[in-house]
Write a structure and sequence with these properties.
The complex is a heterodimer of chains A (about 200) and B (about 475). Chain A has about 200 residues and is α/β, with parallel strands linked by helices. Chain A has a domain of about 120 residues: NADH:ubiquinone oxidoreductase Nqo5 subunit (Beta Polymerase, domain 2), CATH 3.30.460. Helices cover about 15% and strands about 20% of the residues of chain A. Chain A has 3 helices and 7 strands; from the N terminus they run αββαββββαβ. In chain A, the strands form 2 sheets. Chain A has a 5-stranded mixed sheet with strand order 1-2-5-4-3. Chain A starts with a helix and ends in a 39-residue tail after the last strand. Chain B folds into 2 domains: about 70 residues, no CATH class; about 350 residues, Cytochrome-c3 Hydrogenase, chain B (Orthogonal Bundle), CATH 1.10.645.10. In chain B, the strands form 4 sheets. In chain B, strands 3-4-5 form a 3-stranded antiparallel sheet. Chain B is mainly alpha-helical and about 475 residues long. Chain B has 20 helices and 10 strands. Classes of the chains: A alpha/beta (about 200), B mainly alpha (about 475).
């Protein structure tokens, strides 16, 4: 908060700087992100890694079999709402850097939890292997996970055990493949040149 | 009954009565002000003056509030439990396991004119009562998250702005904030304040659009025309500032695309004055109107527990009495320095959602005025040549400026590795951007948590046990924007 207060008090020098040297700010710059919570990093389960992340949230890396337990423990400790569930396909980054003890896998399911009472966020990132893309559903804890997990299933083919209606949600029902996987092409319409042989 | 007042004070009395309605409406929907005798007594005191009001349809006799029974008064200000016509059905009595030949399934949409775009609702009906609902979405899916992985961070704002096409600047803002969090760039104060100014104007324009479509859904064509008329003023200002009425690509990583145009304070002053004055006309047209209230009060209600469990945010969550607004609860930009109220409701029904949006227009106008007053001078974007292009004039003078300009628009800038989930308050709720960077100039993964997408899950709960005729009103009060639902 201190740089913001300073910028509020001091009237900024008017006009853009004529020089194009980088970082020659006319006025002290302002942080736009929320202020992170001052209290120490939470760990409802002692054996799960937690680290501070950007934009005032903490990140936990549970093993896949402890994912549901961890989220349940977070819910019990005051995280009332599930903001978002999504996934990332790290196909081209097999050996990416993760905290010690976390084995990188191809997929990662990311659940963002929100505590309204403590105004803090925590992000649960769970590694999901490519040959068995299955994780537990959060539907029994947060009914709001229904559409979000369907979206992840639709786009990544990750299955959520215990989900009541795991069907495609945005793509057509008879669609083949899972579009947000990195080995799924973006698709393009072939350019039709005047001289090129036509479709017939 | 009549106190012998004549036409001289007509204007005053009309304004007073309207003011009463507005204040009472506030009191009814603001949890902390809902003390019983507090508004009751003040309402009586103020109303005693109004006896004959000169209206456009001649003199109208008004009975004093003294003659109204307390029960009636409470009902008028919405302080009694609202039970809609369909609410006589106890949802616990609904037997979902009944044989299917006793119920009927009808499809509403995807081309129904009142479903706010291509949304299809599968409704299971028992007579006129809605039992189960299933929203079927995806008709507008265009793969924007996949496209976002193919575009550089410079181009990305153009992509996301097309998601929630009613409030495009909010999408650009959340995308830019996520990118800047990864870049670890801080902005000059003017850029941040311009962003706040634009997002508050955007909130006004989005809520006006909602008022318009909601009026249309309930059969009030005049409200539709009025809402669009006011929104057009704001869009004209956006066009002047950004060059486009919608899909602006104005808020970009590193700041905003251009400074505010000359004379922007005057334009905004006109917008604020006009829109604020007209919100009181909407009060006259809708808020106090018995038919409108009949259709809104108690319809489509949802409890705070259900709303939190279903991950609902925005006006729907606030209508249940939960004072959760990211601008206040987890302040981003510099909202912590601004003074505004978070509007909450009590009953979580359609009327509370209407009242919240109407009052949020007023709050946002107050915010816009405050921002105009305190707008700091300075630069409108960060002077970092690796993130923002140099000023046009520099390109003619400096080789480096030309190179930077060329590099930024051909290959973009590289963003350090990392991931972030940035969330802000859009007019519809929490819009979040989960962004993963692998160190290149394109996001490795760009996911938008659309508030409409999540809020749509509330529709089955809200419709259950209600009448089919209320389905449109309820769906409208959820305010789904299909471009954002389907992305």
């Amino acid at each position: 908060m201190s740089p913001e207060e300073a910028s509020q008090a001091a009237p900024a020098a008017a006009g853009p700087s004529p020089s194009d040297a980088p970082a020659a700010h006319a006025a002290p710059s302002v942080s736009q992100a929320p202020v992170p919570s001052q209290s120490p990093v939470l760990s409802p389960l002692p054996d799960v890694q937690t680290s501070p992340g950007r934009w005032a949230s903490e990140i936990a890396f549970p093993p896949r079999e402890r994912y549901h337990d961890l989220v349940a423990a977070y819910k019990a400790s005051g995280f009332e709402q599930l903001s978002d569930v999504t996934a990332v396909d790290y196909l081209t980054h097999p050996g990416r850097e993760l905290p010690p003890g976390v084995e990188p896998e191809r997929f990662e399911v990311v659940a963002n939890l929100l505590s309204l009472s403590q105004t803090r966020r925590v992000r649960v990132r769970v590694q999901v292997p490519a040959d068995d893309p299955v994780v537990d559903t959060l539907y029994d804890l947060y009914p709001g996970a229904e559409a979000m997990e369907r979206e992840v299933f639709d786009f990544f083919g990750i299955r959520f055990t215990g989900h009541p209606d795991l069907t495609r949600i945005l793509m057509p029902e008879d669609w083949e493949g899972h579009p947000l996987r990195k080995d799924y092409g973006v698709g393009r319409v072939p350019v039709q040149f005047k001289e090129a042989p036509g479709p017939r | 009954m009549t106190d012998g007042t004549d036409g001289d004070m007509a204007d005053d009395t009309i304004r007073d009565t309207v003011g009463d309605a507005a204040i009472d409406g506030d009191a009814a929907t603001t949890a902390d002000a809902a003390t019983d005798d507090g508004f009751g007594r003040s309402g009586v005191r103020r109303a005693q003056r109004a006896a004959v009001a000169e209206t456009s349809e001649g003199a109208q006799e008004l009975s004093t509030r003294r003659e109204t029974s307390p029960d009636e008064l409470r009902r008028e200000v919405g302080a009694v439990l609202r039970i809609p016509e369909g609410g006589v059905v106890d949802t616990a009595d609904i037997d979902l396991e009944r044989p299917t030949d006793e119920t009927m399934i009808i499809n509403m949409g995807p081309q129904h004119p009142s479903t706010h775009g291509v949304l299809r609702l599968m409704l299971e009906l028992d007579g006129e009562t809605v039992l189960r609902t299933k929203p079927v979405i995806g008709y507008l899916h265009t793969g924007m998250e996949k496209t976002g992985e193919e575009l550089t961070y410079v181009q990305g704002a153009t992509n996301v702005t097309r998601m929630d096409y009613i409030s495009p600047l909010t999408n650009e803002l959340v995308f830019s904030l996520a990118t800047e969090a990864l870049l670890d760039v801080e902005l000059p104060p003017r850029a941040v304040w311009i962003r706040m100014l634009m997002s508050e104007l955007q909130r006004v324009s989005s809520h006006l659009m909602w008022m318009a479509t909601n009026g249309m859904d309930l059969g009030s064509t005049s409200m539709m025309i009025y809402g669009f008329r006011e929104r057009e003023m704001i869009l004209a200002f956006f066009e002047k500032t950004t060059g486009l009425r919608m899909n602006h690509n104005y808020i970009r990583p590193g700041g905003v695309a251009a400074d505010l145009p000359d004379g922007w304070e005057d334009d905004i002053e006109v917008i604020c004055d006009t829109v604020l004055r007209r919100t009181y006309e909407y009060d006259e047209l809708l808020t106090g109107q018995p038919i409108f209230r009949e259709r809104m009060e108690g319809v489509g209600s949802i409890t705070a527990e259900e709303a939190i469990a279903l991950s609902l945010t925005g006006p729907i969550l606030r209508s249940t009495g939960v004072p959760w607004d990211l601008r206040r609860s987890m302040p981003y930009l510099t909202y912590a320095k601004l003074d505004f109220d978070v509007i909450v409701g009590t009953y979580g029904d359609n009327f509370d959602r209407y009242a919240i949006r109407l009052n949020e227009i007023r709050e946002s106008i107050g915010l816009v005025r405050e921002i105009v007053e305190r707008m700091p001078p300075g630069d409108y974007r960060v002077q970092d040549r690796k993130v923002t292009p140099p000023p046009r004039a520099r390109i003619d003078e400096s080789m480096e400026a030309l190179i930077h300009h060329f590099k930024i628009f051909t290959e973009g800038f590289r963003v350090p590795e990392g991931e972030v989930y940035a969330a802000i308050e859009s007019p519809r709720g929490e819009i979040g951007c989960y962004m993963v960077s692998d160190g290149t100039a394109k996001p490795y993964r760009m996911h938008i948590r659309g508030p409409s997408f999540v809020n749509l899950q509330a529709v089955p709960t809200m419709l259950r046990g209600g009448l089919i005729a209320d389905a449109i009103a309820t769906l409208s009060s959820v305010d789904p924007i299909m471009g954002e639902v389907d992305r």
